[in-house]
Each structure stands twice: as C-alpha cells, then as structure tokens.
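[Automated response] Your request has been received and processed.

Submitted sequence:
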Amino acid sequence: MPDKFSAVWVSHTSISDFLQCPRAYYLKNIYKDPKTRHKMQIMSPPLALGQVVHSVLESLSVVPTKDRFQESLVTKFERNWLAVTGKKGGFFDSATEAKYKDRGRAMLQQVMDNPGPLTGLAVKIKEDLPHYWLSEDDGIILCGKIDWLEYLADTDSVNIIDFKTSKSEESESSLQLPIYHLLVHNCQHRQVQKATYWYLELGTVVDKTLPPLEEAHQQILKIAKEIKLARQLERFKCPHGEAGCFACRPFERILQGEAEFVGENEYHQDIYVLPRAKQELTKEEQSELL
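Generated structure:
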C-alpha cells in the first residue's frame, strides 16, 4: 500500500477551492507562512456562525440518545461562541456580531423544539477524519467529516444528514453528495440509503437523490487527478489572470500585509480577518430576512 503521508489528500472543501480558482487552492491548502510554517485561514461572520452551530450539533452524536438534550443547545452555543467573539470571528462591530449570534441561538432553539432524527440512534465513524484510498495507483486519498449519520433500524442502513447554516440552497452542481456518498460507503459497513440537507434557519429538511457510486467515483477521481498534476507541475494560476478573482484576492491581501492576524486555531492555521467593502460581501451578508 502506498504511503499515506506522501499521498495527495482531497476533500469537498479543497476540491471546491480548486474548481473555483487553482491559485486560491494553493494559497489555502499548500502555502505556509515562512515564519510560522502554518497555513492560512480567513475568518468571516458566516464562517464563525457555521463553525459554532456545527460544533454544538456534532457533539451530540457521541452522547447517548437519552442524554442529548439534558443541557440546552443554546447554553452550549453561548459557551462555544467565546472562541469566535470579536475579531476572532471576523466581527468588526458589536451590532454585526449580535445579529449572527441571535441567528445561531434561533437555529439551535428550533432544533430543540423539533429535534427529529437527533433523538434517535446515530452511527459515529471512529476516525477523527474519515478517509480512504480513492486511488492507490494514483496515490490519492479522499477525506472529510460528515455532520450526522442517522441509523435506520428497519433496513440497518444510514441516512447522511448535512446541517446547513446558510440561507441559500446548495447548488445542484455541488459535489458534496458524490463525495459524502463515497466517504460513508467506504468508511463504515452499513449501506447508505439516502441523504438529507437540513436547513437549520429555515427549519426545512430536503431529501436528496444520491448519485451512483461508480459515477461518483469517476467524477471525483478525475478532478483529484487534475489537482495532483497541478501540484506536480506547481501550476496554480487564477483563471482571471494577475488581477485575481473573488476566491484568491483575499489571500493575496494577506501576503501583501493588508490583513490582521487574530490567532491560531486548533488545526494550527494562522487566522486572519479582512475589513471588507460592501461590494466584497456575499449576497447573504448584504441583506437580511426580517
């Protein structure tokens, strides 16, 4: 078997980075600061909100079903929010932070009021980072974390549940389902029966059709091989030229000294924040549902 440490590791996030912009992929997944030897991450309010809400919900999967809601999820959220308060979460003013914090509280209160599958048995993959050889011949490993695996006792199978903290629906072109189907199929022994997107803010649950495994394998392997070739050739050009694009420009600003360093995360990444002009905000950040 090939050496895992010399393999190319790919995930839904890194593949999405590469497809958006190879330069952004390089700056997020390969480049390390010469001084700290750490990779970089840019923190933003939507990312902070997603991280904290996911951390609360995912922690429930290791708790026995009868004990999952003994402590309020909102109380856990308040405790976990301390890790992203202020500039650590990309918040430059208290009003913006309060809005995002209120959204998080509301999401988790809604889950407590309508916990659905979270009250039943869950399958927990033992690995901290589930992974498997996508191709031993090519030296490529697929990895990624799954939000929740609901155990379906009637068929001894699982339902992949992905928690969504964004207000926008996942694109139909997203590679998340093919990647999650492959990961769950190869990292535990039960059949994958279905997949579900749980839009926490909207309180809606959407069942998704899983792509055939062989089709998913070929689709993801093709892109993974392109990533491996780019790494071998050290060719990571932005498709928009030297001016850059929305994906790579923020990381170029870090290299140019325009970002503010706010700390190091648990994965030993250097965390930066960037004050952004209105035209740089995402559609979700520019407006609000009232």
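Summary generated for your ticket: The longest helix spans residues 213-233. DSSP finds nine helices and ten strands in the chain.
If you did not submit this request, please reply to this message.
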